[in-house]
């Protein structure tokens, strides 16, 4: 596995997908392939957020794939292939996907995550009004809630500060009410100040 310094040297300290020089960091291309191939690339913050589905895919930003797909770095090729698949509703992405070739091992690596089967839609934690919730936000309960396994009753209008997002479930958040950490359904909260 390469060190971050080696990745920065290989990439010229630029994002290996879009060429940006701002806030670059290491991104692991999982799962690791069976062959001993480097599975890390250097990406900018914007690319990383969209790769990790923390932002909607911006097809204009990803026009850079028309260049990065020809990289000699296998991990860059794999990520480019996955993203082109996620963007295949765009005619330019489908055309470039048709031009791209990955050998059998690399294609197996690219398909192993299943990420290519997902479309570009990203699911966010949203309150009852559709506002996007983020880690650390404050929310207001829109309904009185009985807390299971407790005598606690969270009253409508209660402010819950510093929420945590429940990973892999966009319908749930965690927050503290009267010193107890509880799970709250997002449909029963409104983002404070929204």
TrEMBL record:
UniProt feature coiled coil, ranges: none
Protein name: PhnA protein
PhnA protein N-terminal proteobacterial domain segment(s): 6-52
Originating organism: Flavihumibacter stibioxidans
């Amino acid at each position: 596995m390469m060190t971050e310094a080696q990745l920065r040297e290989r990439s010229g300290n630029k994002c290996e997908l879009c060429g940006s020089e701002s806030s670059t960091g290491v991104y692991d291309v999982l799962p690791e392939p069976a062959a001993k191939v480097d599975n890390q690339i250097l990406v900018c913050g914007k690319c990383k957020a969209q790769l990790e589905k923390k932002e909607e895919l911006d097809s204009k930003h990803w026009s850079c794939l028309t260049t990065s797909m020809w990289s000699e770095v296998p991990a860059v090729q794999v990520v480019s292939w996955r993203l082109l698949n996620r963007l295949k509703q765009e005619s330019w992405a489908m055309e470039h996907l048709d031009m791209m070739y990955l050998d059998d091992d690399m294609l197996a690596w690219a398909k192993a995550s299943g990420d290519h089967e997902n479309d570009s839609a990203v699911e966010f934690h949203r309150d009852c009004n559709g506002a996007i919730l983020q880690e650390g936000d404050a929310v207001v309960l829109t309904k009185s809630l009985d807390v299971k396994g407790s005598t606690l009753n969270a009253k409508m209008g209660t402010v819950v500060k510093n929420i945590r997002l429940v990973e892999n479930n966009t319908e749930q958040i965690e927050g503290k009410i009267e010193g107890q950490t509880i799970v709250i359904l997002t449909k029963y909260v409104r983002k404070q100040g929204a």
